[in-house]
């Protein structure tokens, strides 16, 4: 079984910040807007090195989203930065009308997504944002798993024409994606080959899926592990190729099971190859305060939960 | 026939008519276009459209510097964003008669497969439209973004937007107003269609707005008031004055005092025609008050 090494824990938001700073040097059309969270979003280097292209809008996310839409007129590529909650739910209508329906080339970059935001609690832990964004026609939805992948995705979305939602997080997590791995929007990364069960994971749950596969391997179960960094457009072939071998699947995401990756996968399977599926996700609930690790344990969003889900789905084959 | 490419702002005569005569004829013809569009589909917003007819005609034919082709980026030309998208009938008529698309296309307003959607959109690729609008409160923010990009591009052209007075009740408007003055967005002219009416009644009945001039000034905007917002010469003079205030460190607000339903006696001074189309008989009466000038579509 292929092994992955954690090269040192880093936060995905720093991958965004470092990617953005690199874009500042290489692409003069890239501009950045932030709603009073420059430090949290790691946008400080871009602000310092490209002050003319950095727009501090204050605590006014609705204005920020529509300003970003307007800035595309004349050829700029705006990257907006705030927490995932304030990047989606708070400004849904602005994104819907001025960005998605108007087909504007805006990159909505959202940190502190999901339950691993931790102690701030449910007001800030959005678990519905993937669903909100994937429902918008024309919106690309990406949830990266580690620092290296988030940096690569930040560079890649600047080259993609059209609105993008890029979701990442707050805590330091394992960094295992090769630094030089090219990020291809809509093309899943096949991490581990296996024949018994498919695990399709996104975001912080990808590392948990790798750890789960190791545990399963020790139990004599071979898992096929896919990093589904792009939820829309979804890599249909990667899913179908895998389940045509394994005939059962577990999806894993730091999001509500209503509206998330799991439901998108279920639709592909229902249309093409009906397959038993288990959902590692939150189950129609808000989060709460706690450390990221405590919350991942309590809400069943870790390697242990993925192992249990795999054993359950294997019994349904 | 007007074509895209007529450099209208530099051309005082149209078809050998003096500018003012031509614009007056265009106003009457545009009113007919508005009434006939909404009547045909028995829906749409004639009141605000009629109230802003003179303003949009002056803006497009006298004030704005426009290129002879339409492209989304609008580099080296003035830009206009309609924030109160429900007055699409007047916007479409003005765009068509300024040469952005065939006037005959006004026949398709709100019909299945049209580019002239109920509220304006870029989605069907209608030339002249750069943003979707209809959900209120977003246009000033969009305009600020476009204005900031003009500055980054060293493009000295201006960005114009029109919003409703009732629309100022949306909270996002005040986020945008704060941002624009706080960041010296002085290549922006926001016009408020100050007709003191909204769907549910008068502004004062629905939500009193107080002294709008003082409010904008308190947010550090330069305010120009056009008392006769349905008078072509007053609008032209006021907008030229507003242009003269750009580039001085402050965003510019034009309070345009208009009459909702202007030009059709039974539609004036009431909110009744905000979102209601005339029936056959009412259309006939309204058109009789505005006899054909430049040719119906």
Query: Which shape of chain A, going by the Cα principal axes?
Result: globular
In CATH terms, the superfamily of chain B is Thiamin diphosphate (ThDP)-binding fold, Pyr/PP domains
User: What would you call the quaternary organization?
Assistant: heterodimer
- Tell me the β content of chain B: 5-15%
Rg of Cα set of chain A: 19 Å
Strand order of the largest sheet of chain B: 3-4-5-9-8
Order of helices and strands of chain A: EHEHEHEHHEHEHEEEEHEEHEHEHH
Could you report the average pLDDT of chain A, rounded to the nearest whole number? Answer: 98
Morphology of chain B? globular
Terminal residue distance of chain B = 13 Å
Stated plainly, the CATH topology of the largest domain in chain A is called: Rossmann fold
Largest sheet of chain B: 5 strands, parallel
Describe this protein's structure.
- The complex is a heterodimer of chains A (317) and B (297).
- With 317 residues, chain A is of the alpha/beta class.
- The radius of gyration of chain A is 19 Å and the shape is globular.
- Chain A has 12 helices and 14 strands.
- Chain A has a 7-stranded mixed beta sheet, with helices on both faces. Chain A has a 5-stranded mixed beta sheet with strand order 9-11-10-13-14, with helices on both faces. In chain A, strands 1-8 form a two-stranded antiparallel ribbon.
- Helices cover 38% and strands 20% of the residues of chain A.
- Chain A has 2 domains: 10-173, Thiamin diphosphate (ThDP)-binding fold, Pyr/PP domains (Rossmann fold); 189-315, Rossmann fold, CATH 3.40.50.
- In chain B, helix 1 crosses helix 4, helix 1 packs antiparallel against helix 10 (280-288) and helix 3 runs parallel beside helix 4 (88-97).
- Chain B is an alpha/beta fold and 297 residues long.
- In chain B, the strands form 3 sheets. A 5-stranded parallel beta sheet of chain B has the order 3-4-5-9-8, with helices on both faces. In chain B, strands 1-2 form a two-stranded antiparallel ribbon. A two-stranded antiparallel ribbon of chain B has the order 6-7.
- Chain B is globular and about 50 Å long.
- Chain B has a single domain (17-288), classed as Thiamin diphosphate (ThDP)-binding fold, Pyr/PP domains (Rossmann fold, 3-Layer(aba) Sandwich), CATH 3.40.50.970.
- In chain B, a hairpin with a 2-residue loop joins strand 6 (197-198) and strand 7.
- Helix content of chain B is 37%, strand content 12%.
- Residues 1-13 of chain B have low confidence and may be disordered.
């Amino acid at each position: 079984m292929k092994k992955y090494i954690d090269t040192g824990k880093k936060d995905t938001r720093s991958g965004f910040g470092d990617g953005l700073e690199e874009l500042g040097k290489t692409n003069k059309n890239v501009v950045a807007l932030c709603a009073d969270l420059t430090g949290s979003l790691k946008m400080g280097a871009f602000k310092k090195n490209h002050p003319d292209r950095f727009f501090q809008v204050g605590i006014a996310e609705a204005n920020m989203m529509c300003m970003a839409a307007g800035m595309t007129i004349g050829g700029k590529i705006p990257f907006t930065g705030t927490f995932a909650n304030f990047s989606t739910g708070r400004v849904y209508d602005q994104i819907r009308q001025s960005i998605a329906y108007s087909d504007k080339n805006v990159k909505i970059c959202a940190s502190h997504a999901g339950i691993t935001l931790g102690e701030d609690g449910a007001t800030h832990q959005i678990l519905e944002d993937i669903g909100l964004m994937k429902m918008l026609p024309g919106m690309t939805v990406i949830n990266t798993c580690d620092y290296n992948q988030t940096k690569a995705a930040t560079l890649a979305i600047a080259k993609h024409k059209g609105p993008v939602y890029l979701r990442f997080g707050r805590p330091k997590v394992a960094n295992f994606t090769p630094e030089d791995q090219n990020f291809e929007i809509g093309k899943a990364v096949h991490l581990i080959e296996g024949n018994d069960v498919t695990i399709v994971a996104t975001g912080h749950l990808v590392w948990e899926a790798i750890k789960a596969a190791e545990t399963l391997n020790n139990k004599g179960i071979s898992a096929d592990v896919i990093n589904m960094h792009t939820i829309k457009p979804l890599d249909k072939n990667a899913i179908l190729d895998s389940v045509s071998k394994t005939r059962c699947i577990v999806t894993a995401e730091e999001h509500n099971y209503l509206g998330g990756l799991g439901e998108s996968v279920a639709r592909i399977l229902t249309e093409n190859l009906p397959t038993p599926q288990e959902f590692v996700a939150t189950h129609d609930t808000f989060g709460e305060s706690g450390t990221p690790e405590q919350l991942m344990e309590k809400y069943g969003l870790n390697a242990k939960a993925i192992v249990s889900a795999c054993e359950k789905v294997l019994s349904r084959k | 026939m007007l074509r895209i490419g007529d450099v209208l702002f530099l051309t005082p005569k149209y078809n050998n008519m003096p500018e003012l005569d031509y614009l007056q004829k265009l106003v009457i013809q545009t009113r007919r276009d508005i009434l006939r569009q909404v009547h045909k589909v028995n829906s749409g917003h004639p009141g605000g459209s009629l109230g802003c007819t003179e303003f949009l005609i002056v803006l497009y034919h006298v004030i704005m510097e426009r290129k002879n082709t339409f492209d989304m980026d609008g580099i080296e030309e003035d830009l206009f964003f309609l924030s109160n998208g429900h007055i699409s009938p007047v916007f479409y008529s003005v765009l068509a008669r300024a040469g952005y698309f065939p006037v005959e296309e006004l026949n398709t307003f709100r019909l299945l497969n049209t580019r002239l959607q109920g509220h304006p959109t870029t989605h069907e690729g209608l030339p002249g439209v750069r943003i979707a609008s209809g959900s209120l409160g977003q246009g000033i923010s969009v305009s600020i973004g476009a204005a900031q990009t003009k500055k980054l591009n060293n493009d000295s052209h201006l960005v114009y937007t029109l919003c409703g007075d009732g629309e100022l009740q949306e909270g996002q408007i005040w986020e945008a107003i704060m941002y624009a003055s706080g960041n010296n967005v002085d290549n922006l002219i926001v016009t408020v269609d100050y007709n003191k009416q909204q769907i549910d009644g008068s502004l004062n009945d629905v939500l009193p707005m107080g002294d709008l001039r003082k409010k904008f000034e308190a947010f550090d905007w330069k305010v120009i008031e056009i008392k006769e917002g349905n008078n072509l010469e007053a609008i032209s003079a006021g907008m030229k004055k507003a242009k003269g205030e750009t580039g001085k460190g402050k965003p510019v607000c034009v309070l345009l005092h208009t009459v909702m339903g202007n030009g059709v006696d039974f539609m004036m001074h009431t909110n009744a025609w905000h979102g209601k189309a005339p029936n056959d008989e009412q259309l006939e009466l309204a058109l009789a008050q505005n006899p054909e000038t430049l040719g119906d579509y």
